[in-house]
Amino acid sequence: MSITAVDVRPVDEIGAAIQTLVHARASIAVVLASALFVNERRQIAAFALAPRLPTVFNFREHVEDGGLISYGIELRQNYRRAAYFVDRILKGEKPGDLPIEFPTKVELVVNVTTAKAIGIDVPSSLLARADEVIE
Predict the structure, then answer these.
(1) Sign of the CA dihedral running 82, 87, 90, 95
(2) Could you report the per-residue pLDDT of 45-97, keeping only the tens digit for each?
(3) How far are the Cα atoms of 5, 8, 29, 78, 91 from residue 74, in angstroms, in the given order?
(4) How far apart are CA 121 and CA 73, in angstroms?
(5) Radius of gyration of the chain measured on its C-alpha atoms
(6) Residue 68 dihedral angles phi and psi, to the nearest 5°
(7) CB 72 within 8 A of CB 84
(8) How far are the Cα atoms of 39, 99, 103 from residue 122, in angstroms, in the given order?
(9) CATH of 11-74+105-134, one of 3.10.450.50, 3.40.50.2300, 2.30.290.10, 3.40.30.10
(10) Residue-wise burial string across 100-132, b where 16 or more C-beta atoms lie within 10 A, e elsewhere
């Protein structure tokens, strides 16, 4: 196995990054957690779908918008917990006195529509373990 790392900074480099992976004959694209990538998730899904490149993400939002699979924390719940702590701070608590929390739940989300579009058969054992299957 070999790894091809592609650095993307501005949004207009996403297409070129996917093409770099295609030319390197990547069998899968693992997209790291980034606000840029969450915001541009539809574009990433579209660019990866054309060459039938499977994609793996940290957040379900990518899969809801056409990515293949995600395994990670639920962003919405993470934002809710952040709001809870902001509320406590605004009510006068010192940030240094608040406990540190780490997400305790990760979820597996699979988009079978995308899998079919890129020609992948998702094993039934994986679908059975998924927290959500998008069809």
Answers:
(1) negative
(2) 999 999 999 999 999 999 999 999 999 998 888 999 999 999 999 999 999 99
(3) 25, 24, 21, 6, 26
(4) 25
(5) 17
(6) -80, -55
(7) no
(8) 27, 40, 27
(9) 3.40.50.2300
(10) eeeeeeeebbbbbebbeeeeeebeeeeeeebee
Q: How far is C-alpha 126 from the geometric centre of its chain's CA atoms?
A: 17
User: Which pair of structure tokens corresponds to residue 69?
Assistant: 């699979």
CA distance 44 to 59: 13
107-111 and 69-72: which strand pairing?
Answer: antiparallel
Q: What percent of the chain has pLDDT over 70?
A: 100
